[in-house]
Design goal:
6-stranded antiparallel β-sheet, 39% helix, 4-stranded antiparallel β-sheet, single chain, rod-shaped, OB fold (Dihydrolipoamide Acetyltransferase, E2P), alpha+beta, 294 residues
């Protein structure tokens, strides 16, 4: 007899805080099996959530400007324009005085430099107002968006890791091994508990190739189980391995001049039989009167 066995392992490191099931217990799909604890992961989630809050705030600042900031930039532009007007008048006046030799060339040059500086200041003020009214560049906005997505991914990953601290049964079955003990520390990937689907056990036979004649998928067999008082269990062949495996029947005069290989045959009980357990031996007979032991 064989059955599906699932060895459950933790994907993250943690210390066992509770293990409410024991060896031999019947469990149902979704039932809590083991609870782990990891203060490091919980602290990591706090950090990731804080980083996400910062990234979202930065994105908001990048995409929008407060009204008072726009008003301040407009005031700066108005002052810069007034400075240009004043610097232009000063330059024009000194240039006229220079023509009449009333002022020096140095004074005119200084006025020219002041006018150039005022013009550059006005250009900068215009650019600052444009930025305040229209927000940052497309590239800066893209960076802000990417930072938010990165922070969200970090929160999602840490949240998923914390969810892995809770281990639940994926099937209805029976606990066949429990390595998890309260207080025990497990590393990622370490098995903590094993579940076997005892309600869906099947028979597996290794059949010699010269005995395969008459055995086909869909045929029913009467299987005798010694552990159940030699009770006969009806089973249907559901699979025959397409490839032969080992050859433990060596060539003899009785079997011919070649080694005989074996083929794995799988048969499932037609009706549910709760008393069948993986590892039980079984005997099967078919019309050719050959009997095979497993």
């Amino acid at each position: 007899m064989e059955a599906t066995r699932i060895d459950l392992a933790t994907k993250v490191a943690g210390r066992v805080s509770s293990a409410p099931v024991s060896f031999g217990d019947r469990v149902t799909a979704g039932q809590l099996l083991v609870e782990l604890d990891s203060p490091q992961l919980k602290a990591g989630l706090d950090t990731a959530e804080a980083s996400l809050a910062v990234a979202r705030s930065n994105r908001e600042l990048t995409f929008s400007t407060r009204p008072e900031t726009i008003a301040a930039r407009r005031a700066e532009l108005s002052k810069a324009e007034a400075d240009v007007v004043l610097a232009q008048r000063t330059y024009d006046r000194l240039s006229g005085l220079l023509d009449r030799s009333v002022t020096s060339q140095q004074a005119v040059d200084q006025a020219s430099n002041s006018l150039d500086a005022a013009l550059r200041a006005r250009e900068a003020a215009e650019a600052n107002l444009h930025l305040a009214e229209n927000g940052n560049s497309v590239e800066q906005k893209a960076v802000a968006e990417a930072q938010v997505r990165q922070a969200e991914a970090s929160v999602a990953q840490t949240t998923a890791d914390i969810a892995e601290l809770t281990i639940r049964s994926p099937i209805d079955g029976q606990v066949t091994a429990r390595m998890a003990e309260p207080g025990k520390l497990f590393s990622a990937g370490a098995p903590v508990i094993s579940i076997v689907d005892v309600d869906r056990a099947w028979f597996t036979f290794n059949v010699r190739e010269d005995l395969l004649d008459g055995l086909e998928i869909g045929r029913t067999l009467q299987v005798r189980v010694p552990a159940l008082g030699n009770r006969l269990v009806e089973a249907k062949i559901t699979a025959i391995n397409a490839l032969g495996s080992f050859a433990n029947w060596r060539a003899t005069k009785a079997t011919g001049d070649f080694d005989l290989r074996t083929f794995e045959l799988r048969a499932e009980p037609v009706a549910a039989e709760r008393n069948l357990r993986p590892g039980m031996s079984a005997l099967v007979e078919w019309s050719a009167s050959h009997r095979l032991e497993r």
